[in-house]
Amino acid sequence: MRLQFRIIQEIFQETGGGNLEKQATAPAAAERDGSVLLKMEGINKAFPGVKALDNVSLTVKAGTVHALMGENGAGKSTLMKCLFGVYNKDSGHIYLEGREVNFKTSKEALENGVAMVHQELNQALKRNVMDNMWLGRFPKISKWCPLTSESKMYAATKEVFDELEVHVDPRTVMSRMPVSQRQMVEIAKAVSYHSKVIVFDEPTSSLTEEEVEHLFRIINMLRDRGCGIIYISHKMEEILRISDEVTIMRDGQWIATRQAKELTMNEIIRLMVGRELTNRYPEKDNAAGDPLLEVKGLTAVYSHLKDVSFTARRGEVLGVAGLDGSGRTELLENIFGIATRKEGEIYLDGKRVMNRSARESLRNKFAMLTEERRATGIFAIRDIQANTTISSLPRYKTGPFLSDKKLRESTDWGIQAMRTKTPSQKTQIRSLSGGNQQKVILARWLLTEPQVLLLDEPTRGIDVGAKYEIYQLILNLAKEGKTVLMVSSEMPELLGVCDRILVMSGGRLAGEVDAKNTTQEEIMTLAAKYA
């Protein structure tokens, strides 16, 4: 199945994108005998205080999926940003179909057949889907009329979506869609360029299992056309299933490139972290005590969350499962006061709390790690110290002023406790890898000394070694008598870390299961109850 090129051809011709028919068929014309499509040799890149890439090389063949793996901060995304023109490499060579290239901008990379789906979505949320799809290449009404043609843009978007089986209305405003649908739009946008090389950076971090299968069908279609796919993920089951070759990086250096069929999960972990990791989940030695948090009849104003009631105990890790749009995130947001409640009551240790805002929730000893760290988690232009201490500033006062010494000490604690890789406290958080940004935010909330910690996808985009550390941290908090509510799209994670699991479906609580005695099948059955 191939796209009908008429309308999209017009868009590319009008915006200087070249001949789309030629672009689209060029990868398919590549030899399928392992011809080299992309070659990166001796790539070096340094930032102030840290060498992000140290003589890294990568070879991608036509018609293959090449996985790129490593711990957070290993240099995977930095390497791809050097390819895509986001960063200028310090030295090294990049060859695309045998021709040396050095893209200065992402626009230049796209025009030359290289596309990238970034881990952190950067979309115009107040614009609709088709505006985001064709941003920078809007189709004109005609050669003589420079106005944008809404009808051409709508038809072109529909053509791409129909081929990829993406069921999204092109006129929907981006902010009204869940993260998973926005991710699929970004993937469709990359495919619409008909690129020779497409980089997927953690593409499944916010997708449901069904959407992951959908993505894999798209990737297989692109591979069959002769595209070279670079696939970055921390999910080893996906890597072993979808990849042809795997390159592993550690501390900014190339470690190994192997055929995927020759690798095992344990071997990948050993190469990534430089040591054996025998267990993916720590031993659970916390014990649930008396009820600490009680939620009664929680109903939201602006979402379909309706009449949710449950009790969570001291020292308990309570998981929240469900399909995308089931109300998992909305449940945490309503408890924390960043979404408006219509009805319902919240009790902490038998005392009713209102939690009408994040500020009030913090005073009541609640803390929440949000799902989208870029949009609602980090202060991108501020440094590590500011991002770590901003939610607990009153504790650092000496008289009317903030104590630099206290701020440094708390930030040092956060860096050490989370094992955050950063050159210094004064490093801007946006320069860190996604996983290290997540660690900084976790340290921020722990410094508020919460009794109830709400975690929405806490290990999203985090490598296997760092995940283990975060799991251990969660269990340690539970051992101290804290209550942890954890939303996760990864079923094994919920089963491995949680004591009980609440299952959401269609905005309602569909059931509750014991993590020790349930199965993924039982959870999925409950998740589909009201869907």
Q: What is the secondary structure topology, with strand pairs?
A:
Elements: H1 6-14, H2 20-29, E1 36-47, E2 50-61, E3 64-69, H3 76-84, E4 91-96, E5 99-101, H4 106-111, E6 114-117, H5 129-133, H6 150-164, H7 179-192, E7 197-201, H8 209-224, E8 228-232, H9 236-242, E9 245-250, E10 253-259, H10 265-273, E11 291-300, E12 308-313, E13 317-322, H11 328-336, E14 341-348, E15 351-353, H12 358-363, E16 366-369, H13 373-376, H14 384-389, E17 397-398, E18 401-402, H15 404-418, H16 434-446, E19 452-456, H17 464-479, E20 483-487, H18 491-497, E21 500-505, E22 508-514, H19 520-527
Parallel strand pairs: 3-8, 3-9, 6-7, 7-8, 13-20, 13-21, 16-19, 19-20
Antiparallel strand pairs: 1-2, 1-4, 4-5, 9-10, 11-12, 11-14, 14-15, 17-18, 21-22
Helix pairs in contact: 15-16
What do you see in this structure?
- The chain has 531 residues and is α/β, with parallel strands linked by helices.
- Helices cover 35% and strands 24% of the residues.
- The chain is built from 19 helices and 22 strands.
- The strands form five sheets. A six-stranded mixed sheet has the order 6-7-8-3-9-10, with helices on both faces. The chain has a six-stranded mixed sheet with strand order 16-19-20-13-21-22, sandwiched between helices.
- Helix 15 packs across helix 16.
- The protein is globular and about 70 Å long.
- The N terminus is likely disordered.
